[in-house]
């Protein structure tokens, strides 16, 4: 039973990510035609450089940019997940 619940949760997470990506792509494609899609909110962590000795260094950061189409894509994805 726990395995089924775990796989269902992973499927929900995948559905949410795909819905957000599709919504964002559609919003970016239509931003020239529908002005409300041009507005977005950004949140995240500024890129930080991490040095490990003198050999390895990498940048770590995360930024989320959400617009109305992203929210609509998320809602449709969640609705479809529970509908199917």
Identify the notable features of this structure and list them briefly.
alpha+beta; two-stranded antiparallel ribbon; 2 helices; 30% strand; flat
Outline the structure in words.
There is one protein chain. The model has no long low-confidence stretch (mean pLDDT 89). The chain has 2 helices and 2 strands. It has a domain at 15-43 and 64-84. Helix 1 (2-30) packs antiparallel against helix 2 (68-83). Helices cover 54% and strands 30% of the residues. Strand 1 (40-52) and strand 2 form a beta hairpin. It has 84 residues and is of the alpha+beta class. It is flat. The protein has a two-stranded antiparallel sheet with strand order 1-2. The longest helix has 29 residues, at 2-30.
Architecture blueprint of SSEs:
Layout: H1 2-30, E1 40-52, E2 56-67, H2 68-83
Antiparallel strand pairs: 1-2
End-to-end gap? 20 Å
Q: What's the total helix number?
A: 2
Ranges where pLDDT stays below 50 over 5 or more residues in a row are: none
Backbone shape: flat
Rounded to the nearest angstrom, the radius of gyration is 18 Å
Name the strands of the widest sheet in spatial order.
1-2
Strand percentage: 25-35%
Number of strands: 2
């Amino acid at each position: 039973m726990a395995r089924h619940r775990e796989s269902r949760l992973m499927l929900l997470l995948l559905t949410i990510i795909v819905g957000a990506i599709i919504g964002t792509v559609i919003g970016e494609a239509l931003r020239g035609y529908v002005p409300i899609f041009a507005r977005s909110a950004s949140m995240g962590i500024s890129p930080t450089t991490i040095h490990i000795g003198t050999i390895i260094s990498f940048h770590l950061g995360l930024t989320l940019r959400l617009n109305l189409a992203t929210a609509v894509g998320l809602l449709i994805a969640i609705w479809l997940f529970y509908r199917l």
